[in-house]
Design a protein that fits this description.
This protein is of the alpha/beta class and about 240 residues long. It has a three-stranded parallel beta sheet, with helices on one face. Strands 4-5-8 form a three-stranded antiparallel beta sheet, sandwiched between helices. A two-stranded antiparallel sheet has the order 6-7. It is globular and about 45 Å long. The protein contains seven helices and twelve strands.
Length: about 240
C-alpha cells in the first residue's frame, strides 16, 4: 500500500507537526509499505524522511511537487536522493525571489529526525517556477525521473483545470486523481491515488496498491503498462 504525495513541515501549507518522525510513525500506523514526500518546489526534507523510513522498514521514493509557469502541479519522482536534490537545485533559481511571510503562508522549516529545526527556508515555495510544463518534464526526465500530473481532476492547479487537456507528446503514462471519476480525455492513463497529506491525520487517506518487483521509477512505468503482472490499482479511500 503506497501513499506517494505527502507534504512535510517544509511546505508552507504543511502542518508543523509533519516532521520526519511523525510522518514515518503515522505511515506505519496506517499500514503503508511505501511513501514519498513531495514538498512544493523543493526536496529539502526528502533525505531525512527517506533515511528514517528505511530505518523503520518503510520503503521510500524521492519526490517533489513542482508548480509550472502554467500553475500546473507536477509530481516528480526519483530513485535516489542525489538525483532529486540535483533536480531541486536546478529549478530553484527559476522560483521567484519572493520572501516567505509565515503569518500569511505558514512556516517553511527543515527539521532533523529528532524534530529539531535545522534551518528556515526564506524564499516562498508556493509560487510557480518560470519554466513551462514541457521544460519541467524534460528536466525531470534528464535526471532519470518520472513526471506525473498531480490531482488532474481538481479545481485549481490540476492540469485539466488549468489547460483543459493533457498536452500530447509529453509522454505521461500515469496521472494522479483526487477523486474517483476519471476526467474525459484521461482514460488511457494509469491512475495513482495519494493523500496529498498536509496534516498527520490525512496520511494514508487515499492510497494506491502497487504490484512491483522493487521500488523504482522504472517499475512504476512498467506497472502503468501492466508489464509482467505489475499493476497500479486503487488502494483505499477514507474521510
Amino acid at each position: 500500500m503506497a501513499d506517494l504525495h505527502i507534504h512535510t513541515c517544509l511546505s508552507p501549507c504543511g502542518d508543523l507537526r509533519m516532521s520526519p518522525r511523525v510522518i514515518v510513525e503515522t505511515a506505519l500506523a496506517q499500514g503503508l509499505d511505501l511513501i514519498s514526500v513531495t514538498d512544493h518546489n523543493t526536496c529539502g526534507m526528502a533525505g531525512t524522511v527517506g533515511d528514517l523510513a528505511r530505518e523503520n522498514g518503510l520503503s521510500f521514493l524521492y519526490g517533489i511537487e513542482v508548480q509550472t509557469q502554467e500553475e500546473v502541479h507536477l509530481l516528480a519522482y526519483f530513485d535516489d536522493l542525489d538525483s532529486c536534490t540535483a533536480f531541486s537545485a536546478e529549478i530553484y533559481p527559476f522560483l521567484p525571489d519572493v520572501p516567505n511571510d509565515p503569518v500569511h503562508f505558514g512556516d517553511q522549516v527543515v527539521v532533523d529526525a529528532t524534530d529539531e529545526i535545522i534551518r528556515v527556508e526564506p524564499r516562498l515555495l508556493l509560487n510557480s517556477v518560470t519554466l513551462s510544463l514541457e521544460e519541467v518534464v524534460a528536466r525531470v526526465r534528464n535526471r532519470g525521473g518520472l513526471a506525473v500530473p498531480a490531482h488532474v481532476d481538481r479545481t485549481g492547479f490540476g492540469i485539466m483545470y488549468q489547460l483543459g487537456f493533457i498536452p500530447p507528446g509529453l509522454g505521461f503514462s500515469i496521472i494522479e486523481l483526487d477523486g474517483d471519476e476519471i476526467p474525459p480525455g484521461c482514460e488511457k492513463y494509469a491512475v495513482l491515488h495519494s493523500s496529498d497529506a498536509h496534516y498527520p491525520e490525512e496520511i494514508g487517506r487515499r492510497t494506491s496498491l502497487l504490484t512491483l518487483e522493487r521500488v523504482s521509477v522504472e517499475e512504476l512505468r512498467r506497472a502503468a503498462a501492466g508489464v509482467g503482472g505489475r499493476s497500479i490499482e486503487y488502494g483505499r479511500r477514507r474521510r
